[in-house]
Specification:
CATH architecture of the largest domain: 3-Layer(aba) Sandwich
Radius of gyration: 19 Å
Strand order of the largest sheet: 2-1-3-5-6-4
CATH class of the largest domain: Alpha Beta
Distance between the termini: 42 Å
CATH topology of the largest domain: Rossmann fold
Strand content: 15-25%
Number of strands: 12
Largest sheet: 6 strands, mixed
Order of helices and strands: EHEHEEHEEHHEHEHEEEHEHH
């Protein structure tokens, strides 16, 4: 026992996560006694480890990342309405020996986008989303809440994309969703105003997202949720095509702020220190990459 309130970020892999740097910076700035640690849990160990954490008196909660965002909701005592809507969770909160799953990915995704374009520019647009996991589910719900007219969903597994579209369609209200096969990703007749990468493609250690932006003549903004590396192959291609770009750092911070409040009971400071440290870390990694 370390006798300190302890939160974790749980995933497989987990070494890439910058959540510990982010939360530790906020803990230091707020002088709160607490810990935030990375915890590598493989899928086959998830149920056992969640039960072990639940029994740990120091454990107060966790962020959940790939590939556990959907599986974890089967292992908790309670889920929030947003988790029920999205079908995935990125946040566990321990209360009175019970675990509650919540999701801050939707608001974390939407805030940076609204800052760049504004709600008026987003409403009525067509958005192409790559991915079909927990992050993509949150993106779809967030876009619908923002009033996006149409969403096109594409994933390497066409079947998985169709399943997600069918499952979430009732939640999207006035937003129309359709799927395009991976094979036709660069030949779709449905031109998109915004492209979002909500998959792990392009992350350090993963293959890049294999699309050619030259085919997307109407696109004005490319939003890549991956933040490691800081400039993914997709973002480099977008900048070469003189498109507006958004990286994953701003979403990382936006989704983490309500998590910190849930863990430690106070809002994190609005100072730029945490973001500066993250950008410095990523820039140094980029310099050291062969």
């Amino acid at each position: 026992m370390n006798n300190k309130p302890t939160a974790y970020v749980i995933g497989d892999p987990i070494g890439h996560s910058l959540s510990p740097l982010l939360h530790r910076t906020w803990l230091k700035e707020t002088s709160i006694t607490g810990r935030f640690e990375p915890l590598h849990i493989k899928p086959e160990e998830l149920e056992k480890q969640i039960q072990a954490l639940k029994a740990d008196t120091d454990f107060i909660g966790a962020n959940i990342t790939l590939p556990h965002k959907q599986r974890v909701i089967e292992l908790v005592d309670e889920i929030t309405p947003i988790v029920q809507k999205i079908g995935a969770a990125n946040l566990l909160i321990k209360k009175d020996h019970r675990l509650m799953a919540s999701n801050t990915d939707a608001e974390g995704f939407l805030q940076p986008l609204l800052q760049v374009l504004g709600k008026e520019e987003i409403t009525g647009n067509t958005v192409l989303v790559f991915g079909a996991g927990g992050a993509a589910r949150a993106v779809l719900i967030a876009l619908a809440l923002a009033g996006v007219r149409k969403i096109i969903l594409c994933n390497r597994s066409d079947k998985r994309a169709k399943n997600v579209a069918r499952e979430l369609s009732p939640q999207l209200k006035t937003t129309k969703i359709k799927t395009v096969s991976w094979q036709n990703r660069n030949t779709t007749e449905d031109q998109s105003d915004i492209i979002v990468n909500a998959s792990s493609a392009g992350m350090t250690g993963f293959d890049p997202l294999d699309i050619n932006l030259d085919f997307y003549t109407k696109t004005k903004l490319v939003y890549d949720l991956v933040y490691r590396p800081i400039c993914t192959p997709l973002l480099r291609q977008a900048k070469k095509n003189r498109l507006l770009t958004l990286g994953g750092v701003d979403m990382l911070i936006a989704q983490a702020r309500p998590c910190f409040k849930a863990f430690f009971g106070v809002n994190p400071p609005k100072t730029p220190l945490a973001k500066q440290l993250i950008l410095q870390t990523l820039a140094e990694e980029n310099r050291n990459t062969p």
